[in-house]
Write a structure and sequence with these properties.
alpha/beta, Aspartate Aminotransferase, domain 2
């Protein structure tokens, strides 16, 4: 269940532009596509060139800042946000710990680029972060729940241990959003997220952000964006702004349905294993219940083998075969095809906004073959 504060926050999101509206102004956010601006005197501030700032994505940053209760820098994708946070906090000779069972592209970035820049890259399973020795580590990046296995670590415990060792903590909060989990409140130094997923919510835009309350860290992140040119487009920002306005109501439906489906999968004869933090018997349940205000919309479940899993996905008309998650439509994929260290028959299911009974009926029929 979401907190009362989240309800108030969701209400504020609908009206956050109200104070700046003048007579006759549009209620919906306008799209300003300009890349250059009228600057007869550069000493007087204002917009000048869209690689530094743009009115449309400034509005999205205001929205996201309300959600995070922290300053935000927007990026053109989740990986742009993750790489910016890492590049802003790492340098040659530093050690970084990444989740072994998290989003695989983050690991590829570590292997392909961070190591070539002289960064020492190490990996840990999410479940091992709480007891890890962070001596000599510069940055600890956690993803909780992990994607796709949905293991959870205690963010407050990890942050305390990391800070005691002199390390910074970056938390990938893509799977939860700030409405379901608040890593900054639990001690993380930076939060990264792919707003491509639930915040935008319609599978039609790439976007990401970094949030943090340390002014110096956020200044480095913003400078990385300006100098690297990793900036979002105005139309993309507008789509995300529109999507965020319905985030709370979509999450409510998606999480409620995921809880129902996870329970039914757990008792299904075709299913070998289920991971969902909302299940009382799940290994992640105790920590998830303590640090989340909801259990999310992602479920991992394992079928007998790859053939059975692919047949389920092909046969179920209400599960889109897609590699992303968090959209209005339910989607699923067999994650081992990307090289994740998971069983061949494991499916990551992202529960969407369909009515739950027709969705379950279609899934049950496909599972029974």
């Amino acid at each position: 269940m979401m907190r009362d504060e989240d309800d108030l926050l969701a209400a504020r999101l609908q009206h956050h532009r109200a104070a700046g509206l003048t007579q006759g102004a549009p209620i919906a956010l306008p799209i300003i596509t300009a890349t250059t601006f009228h600057v007869p005197d550069h000493t007087k501030g204002g917009y000048s060139y869209a690689r530094a700032a743009s009115p449309t994505w400034d509005e999205v940053e205001v929205q996201l800042s309300l959600l995070e209760e922290a300053p935000v820098v927007a990026f053109p994708s989740g990986m742009a946000a993750i790489s910016a946070a890492l590049m802003a906090t790492l340098s040659a000779g530093k050690r970084v710990i990444l989740p072994r069972d998290g989003y695989y592209v983050t690991r590829v970035f570590g292997e392909t680029f961070l190591k070539s820049f002289g960064v020492q890259v190490e990996y840990l399973p999410t479940a091992d972060f709480e007891a890890a020795d962070f001596t000599g580590v510069g940055v600890v990046l956690i993803e909780t729940p992990s994607n796709p296995g949905l293991d959870v670590c205690d963010i407050a415990v990890v942050a305390a241990r990391a800070h005691a060792a002199g390390a910074l903590v970056i938390a990938d909060n893509t799977t939860m959003t700030p409405l379901l989990q608040r890593p900054l409140d639990l001690g993380a130094d930076l939060v990264v997220a792919a707003d491509t997923k639930a915040p935008a919510g319609h599978s039609d835009v790439l976007f990401g952000h970094v949030a943090g309350r340390d002014a110096d860290l956020m200044a480095r992140v913003r400078e990385w964006r300006r100098l690297s040119g990793a900036v979002p487009g105005s139309f993309e920002a507008w789509l995300v702004h529109r999507g965020i306005e319905t985030l709370e109501v979509r999450l409510s439906r998606m999480c409620a349905s995921a809880g129902v489906i996870a329970e039914r999968l757990l008792g299904h004869p075709a299913v070998l294993a289920v991971r969902y933090p909302g299940l009382p018997g799940d290994p992640s349940h105790a920590v998830a219940a303590r640090q989340m205000s909801g259990f999310g919309f992602l479920i991992s479940f394992t079928l007998r083998d790859a053939v059975v899993a692919e047949k389920f996905l092909a046969d179920c008309p209400f599960v889109a075969q897609a590699t992303s998650f968090g959209s209005t439509h339910t989607s699923g994929e067999r994650r081992a095809r990307w090289g994740d260290a998971v069983p061949e028959g494991l499916i990551r299911l992202s529960v969407g906004c369909e009515p739950v009974e027709p969705l379950w009926a279609a899934m049950d029929a496909a599972l029974r073959g």
